[in-house]
Amino acid sequence: MRVVIAGAGLGGLCLAHGLRRAGVDVVVLERHASPDAKPASYGIHLGADGLRALHACLPERSRTQLTETSSTAPDIVRFHDQDLRVLAERDHTHTSANTDPVTRRRAVNRDALRDALLAGLNTANTGRDDVIRWGSAFDRFEYTKDGVLVHAADGHTVAADLLVGADGANSRVRAQRLPGLRRRDLGIVNIAGRVRLTRDLAGTLPAALVDGAVTNIVPARPGWMFLSTWDAGAAERVIVWAWAAHRSTYPDDLGTAGPARLLDLVRDRTGTWAAPVRRIIAETDLATVAAIPLKTMPELPDWQPTAVTLLGDAIHAMTPMAGIGANTALRDADTLRRHLSADTAPVARIAGYEREMRGYANAALALSTRNARGAATTSRLPRSVFRTVLRLAEAVPPVKQRMFPVR
């Protein structure tokens, strides 16, 4: 069997490893000219789904590299008010998933994860026998009696039994395979930035903001802030933050606003907040500040399986407000690997994968969309109720267990 994967992102590379370990001939088409043409780095929390997939798909060398370049992370999500008073804390650090060496939550820089995924794959770009064909963007496909013929933008073609679109949220594979399935704009915009966690800054911040856990600041008024601390490589740590709000709460010039203007918008909205938060905003590196409109795929409907399928953001791009996008893409890779090992016709294997994937992907899409809308609500009543429920959960353990179940 030969499988062509369009896109050398996290899910595509994980799948490439898993299929090669099973003896499948794999070709990865990647539009970037080399492994050095990387997107901006950011941090990822690897949860049980992602870690199981990496353990199942990656060779030992890559797994070892990943372990050496990542760190264990507290499975803690905190909710504070704008004065940094605790509303609630969800701590799953000592659950069974986090005591299992395979699934214990880890924090990793995206570049480090990608480097581990590239290890063991031929990245020399020396010819058509390379696993990854750098600078060879997917253009289109056509069905054949034996499977699919994949056309690259540079003019060459690859005949395969299956094509997997792993080419991101603006997937060209999806545009041809499922042209009616498009992302929708939620009317929510995140303004995000980073600040270096210097020794001086760290000395002024409470431990809850620098221990690697996820902190949500839930003010009484519209808006929401997310903060977390990440290793940025070269022994540098950063605080990553994002302000989430409905587009209607921003001025009309948001679309043309530069970094300084965007930072001023956040500063204006947090001007009466606790001093540590104000300092984080004040010391943010302007070069890292950007406005990010939140988009999501709709609920995935059923469709007839063919020799072309999709994984990751190519099929279920979601908002970052649940923190599970990368883990879900890795889960796709392992799920597809498992189904392709079945002793059935190729399209039947794809049908099994897509049926299973739609189930958990739709749940993830619903969760991330619900979180985004809750964070950006402009109504004070739902926000007041949510803050009250958080306080109740913190005070009454049975309520907390129901609100934050162990999954």
From TrEMBL:
Location of the FAD-binding domain: 2-365
Keyword annotations from UniProtKB, A to Z: FAD, Flavoprotein, Monooxygenase, Oxidoreductase
Native source species: Amycolatopsis camponoti
Gene3D superfamilies the UniProt entry points to: FAD/NAD(P)-binding domain
InterPro entries (alphabetical): FAD-bd, FAD/NAD-bd_sf
PANTHER family per UniProt: FAD-BINDING DOMAIN-CONTAINING PROTEIN, MONOOXYGENASE, FAD-BINDING
GO molecular function: FAD binding; monooxygenase activity
Domain of life where this protein originates: Bacteria
Name of protein: FAD-binding domain-containing protein
